[in-house]
Amino acid sequence: MPFIIAFPFLPSHDKKTHCNSEALAGLQSTTHSIPLTMFNLYGKIALITGAQPTLGRVYAIALASQGAKVVLTNTTEELCKDAVAEIVAMGGDAHCFGMDVSRKAQIDTTIEKVGQQFGRLDILINCAGVFKPKPALEITEREWDETISVNLKGQFLCAQRAAKEMAKNTWGRIINISWIAPAGEGIGFGGPAHATASKGGMIGMNETLADEWAPLGINVNAIALGVIEIPRVEGVRISEEAKKAILEHIPLHRMGKPEEVSGAIIFLASQEASYVTGATIYVDGGWHSF
Length: 290
What we know:
Elements: H1 21-30, E1 45-48, H2 55-65, E2 69-74, H3 78-89, E3 93-98, H4 104-118, E4 123-126, H5 141-166, E5 172-179, H6 193-213, E6 218-225, H7 231-234, H8 240-248, H9 259-269, E7 280-283
Parallel strand pairs: 1-2, 1-4, 2-3, 4-5, 5-6, 6-7
């Protein structure tokens, strides 16, 4: 619909109304409908790790809805096929590859394929991760190493290889998915020290990469999630008392939905976020400010 831009500080020829009537009339006479182009991702190539079956899938659908060509990855290609079919059925452009983010060789091979097949890589959503709630005294060395390998090392290796591809076009967006615990707001699932350590390290890494890669035209940001309703979280057994305590700590008094994270993803992936880098955006219903 048409819009009118108001200029409250235009020089006034009317002391009573403090409005330059001639200028305002000119604006109104030339006002016309302008297509919505903000957050347009047409022509962009986006790679989403951990893209099925939970949050990564929702992010892929959101990016595709804005015109991006999306490449979904998970440990096996089979895990991504349903999401790809869903996006294609909606009229989007989607593809999938098998990629274990804890293995550098697979990361390098996959991102090289993306560059060769699509000619470029513009957006990386670092979504792959593991979360296994367990008291700190019971975490094994193997569990610690697996969590750090996927959540921290894997995110770095994906970002590193993606940045090399993005640097060829001096434009890129890297979005690292974290959660609120590293900021000091644990979510009450009981002692996930290994997960918290991995995500806390990622926040620090996020800021360093943003600083180093800014001259390459690459913006690096993070999204810190609160309690989001996904199968992985819903499968964790917590008492009604614990759930009540969690909800009482959220000003919006409810869990978030995966789709409510998509807005932040789209913004950070777009040209409109050109002056945003090194930031962590909290999507947590107000938890961290409670």
